[in-house]
């Protein structure tokens, strides 16, 4: 019976249970460490891919904006050349500018009226200085419109690149 009493002693069974629990905890801890390492590696990979995508998009945006700026500068220079030639022609008299004016008519009788369709159009010629001043005002407006169009083109290009990545 003494052997049976030894089998009933709880100390070896407790030691075995504690050893099994420690072994289970060590295995679970190693699994958890392995999972953390896998997740960290995945995060690093995703981060590297996002960085590469962001850099590629940045390069694409820079190229698009540079192309738009180059086109805009060329367009502005071409229009400036045309405007300068026009103003030079106005100053030399090669181009004459005039505006329609209402003609003063002498009254021949009390009931005589001339309608707009009955009188020929009267025009007043502008001085070269007035013509160049008006041309400069119109050119400033045209330049502003071209700049706004370049801004809109830039916005659309960035929007297209940004929407492409999503």
Helical residue percent band: over 70%
Q: Please indicate the percent range of residues in DSSP E strands (runs of 2 or more).
A: under 5%
Summarize model confidence as the mean pLDDT.
87
- Structural class, from secondary structure content? mainly alpha
Straight-line distance between termini: 78 Å
Arrangement of strands in the largest sheet:
1-2
The oligomeric status of these chains comes to single chain
What is the overall number of helices? Answer: 3
Radius of gyration: 44 Å
Main β-sheet: number of strands, strand sense, barrel status? Answer: 2 strands, antiparallel
N to C succession of SSEs: HHEEH
The counted number of beta strands is: 2
Uncertain stretches of 5 or more adjacent residues:
none
Shape: rod-shaped
What does it look like?
The chain is mainly α and 166 residues long. The protein contains 3 helices and 2 strands; from the N terminus they run H-H-E-E-H. A two-stranded antiparallel ribbon has the order 1-2. The longest helix is centred in the first third of the chain and has 83 residues, at 10-92.
């Amino acid at each position: 019976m003494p052997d049976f009493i030894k089998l009933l002693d709880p100390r070896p069974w407790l030691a075995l249970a504690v050893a099994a629990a420690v072994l289970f905890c060590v295995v679970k801890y190693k699994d958890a460490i392995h999972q953390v390492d896998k997740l960290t590696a995945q995060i690093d990979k995703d981060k590297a891919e996002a960085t590469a995508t962001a850099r590629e998009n940045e390069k694409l945006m820079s190229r698009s904006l540079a192309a738009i700026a180059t086109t805009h500068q060329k367009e502005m220079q071409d229009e400036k050349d045309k405007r300068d030639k026009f103003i030079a022609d106005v100053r030399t008299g090669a181009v004459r500018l005039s505006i329609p004016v209402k003609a003063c008519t002498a009254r021949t009788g009390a009931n005589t009226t001339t309608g707009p369709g009955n009188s020929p159009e009267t025009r007043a010629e502008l001085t070269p200085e007035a013509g160049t001043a008006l041309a400069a005002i119109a050119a400033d407006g045209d330049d502003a419109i071209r700049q706004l169009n370049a801004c809109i083109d830039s916005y659309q290009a960035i929007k297209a690149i940004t929407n492409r990545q999503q």
